[in-house]
Amino acid sequence: MNAMRPEKTETTETETVDSNLAAVTEVEAGIRDFVRNDIAYLRRPAATATTDAPALDPSAEATVTNVNSLIQRVAGTSLAEIENLISELESLRDLLHAEGQRVQREISGYAQLSQAAMKSTRMIADNVAQWKRAADGLRNS
Predict the structure, then answer these.
(1) Cβ(46)–Cβ(28) under 8 Å?
(2) Helix/strand/coil percent split, the chain, to 5
(3) Model confidence band, residue 100 (pLDDT cutoffs 50, 70, 90)
(4) How confident is the model at residue 127 (pLDDT cuts 50, 70, 90)?
(5) How many CB atoms lie within 10 A of CB 24?
(6) Residue 18 pLDDT level (bands cut at 50, 70, 90)
(7) What is the pLDDT of residue 1?
(8) Average pLDDT across the chain, whole number
């Protein structure tokens, strides 16, 4: 029975990993769509937003350009940090999984050793009891 359990665990973990990756991909796609669609107007110059609006003066355009550049740098850095964090967490998950399996093997080994020690102790106790009965029998005769 124990031999079958790791296979089920591995299958379940594979399915969990697949569903987690699908969820992460979905969240990333949502963030990209949000940035492209909902924040894209910040990147457009004001003159193209409305055709009747006057052009911005050079200092305002420089400010808008600087803000857009800053937003792009911060977003790029944040995404890189998130990707690094995700990879670190995946590595940690793999390490914890491997350690969990190692601990499970160690506990199984200790349980087998404990059972062997109990059997040996019972055998010794039974033999001592037999010797004691034999010695008592010799004394009484």
Answers:
(1) no
(2) 90, 0, 10
(3) very high
(4) very high
(5) 13
(6) confident
(7) 43
(8) 78
Question: Which tokens hold the place of 89?
Answer: 């967490």
- Residues 6+ positions from 41 with CB-CB distance below 8 Å: 49
DSSP 39-101: SHHHHS-HHHH-TTSPPPPHHHHHHHHHHHHHHHHHHHHHHHHHHHHHHHHHHHHHHHHHHHH
What is the chain's length? 141
Structure token digits, residue 118: 């109990």
Q: Of 104, 109, 103, 40, whose CA–CA distance to 68 is shortest?
A: 40
Give the tokens for residue 25.
């991909």
For 51, list phi and psi in degrees, rounded to 5: -75, -20
Q: What are the structure tokens assigned to 27, written together?
A: 């969240």
pLDDT band at 66 (very low <50, low <70, confident <90, very high): confident
Residue 97's Cα: distance from chain center in Å?
A: 9
